[in-house]
Amino acid sequence: AQSVTQLGSHVSVSEGALVLLRCNYSSSVPPYLFWYVQYPNQGLQLLLKYTTGATLVKGINGFEAEFKKSETSFHLTKPSAHMSDAAEYFCAVSDANQGGKLIFGQGTELSVKP
Amino acid sequence: EADIYQTPRYLVIGTGKKITLECSQTMGHDKMYWYQQDPGMELHLIHYSYGVNSTEKGDLSSESTVSRIRTEHFPLTLESARPSHTSQYLCASSEEGPGEKLFFGSGTQLSVL
After folding, report:
1. Nearest residue of A to residue B43, measured between CA atoms
2. Chain B environment of A104 (Cβ under 8 Å)
């Protein structure tokens, strides 16, 4: 069975600092990996995804993530945090056998201090 | 960007009432999903559909039911609401293919008193 673990339910960084949100997954077959962001009172929107090919994936708003098969990780990073990045971030996994269904992690709330 | 709509946005009702949460999308997607989200917790899939007249239960058991009579419409119904049903309900849709992204609605925050 697939699963996703996000390390740290709450991360706080200063504006301009590096953002690192951790995600580890478990999957018996090659995974599809996603990061979604949820701003207050809104639905989730896709930041980036990995399906095949290049393991470093670039997304919207300056975020990127690297698929590391040996570490079963898909950590999300951004070199310089902005106040507008404050939101809830969800890592998710799927595979070709799941018909598009996603398994989500518990989420990480990112706070950005001025 | 998203063309998927959920109504109502907030709903406060009493125990025992029947409710229907509406979800519609204008993108022509065959695949649609309902997720339940509690504060600080992961999203749990409770229902999904791969097309008209197709509905399946998700990974999390739910007393709710769904229907898919039209491609664009995927309502969720609770016959008799209870306080344990208090949660946020998120509807989503996607194109064909396992790696396709989900488009989410803004959600319905349900409170059962």
Report:
1. A104
2. 35, 42-44
Q: Does A51 sit within 8 Å of B41, measured CB to CB?
A: no
The angle at the Cα of B112, spanning B54 to B9, to the nearest 5 degrees, equals: 65
What was the pLDDT predicted at A40?
85
Long-range contacts of A25-28 (CB under 8 A, 24+ apart): A25/A72, A25/A73, A25/A74, A25/A91, A25/A93, A26/A1, A26/A2, A26/A72, A27/A2, A27/A72, A27/A93, A27/A95, A28/A2
- Cross-chain Cβ contact B90/A43 below 8 Å: yes
DSSP secondary structure of A37-93: EE-TTS-EEEEEEE-SS-SEEE-GGG-EEEEEGGGTEEEEEESS--GGG-EEEEEEE
What is the Cα–Cα distance from A27 to B108, expressed in whole angstroms? 31
pLDDT value of residue B1: 54
SS3 for B17-64 is: CCEEEEEEECCCCCEEEEEEECCCCCEEEEEEEEECCEEEECCCCCCC
Average pLDDT value for residue range A25-36: 90
Least confident of A4-8, A94-98, B99-103: A94-98
CA quadruple B53, B78, B5, A89: dihedral sign: negative
Digit-coded pLDDT (tens) for B51-64:
999 999 988 888 89
Is A34's pLDDT higher than 90? Answer: yes
Mean pLDDT taken over chain A? 92
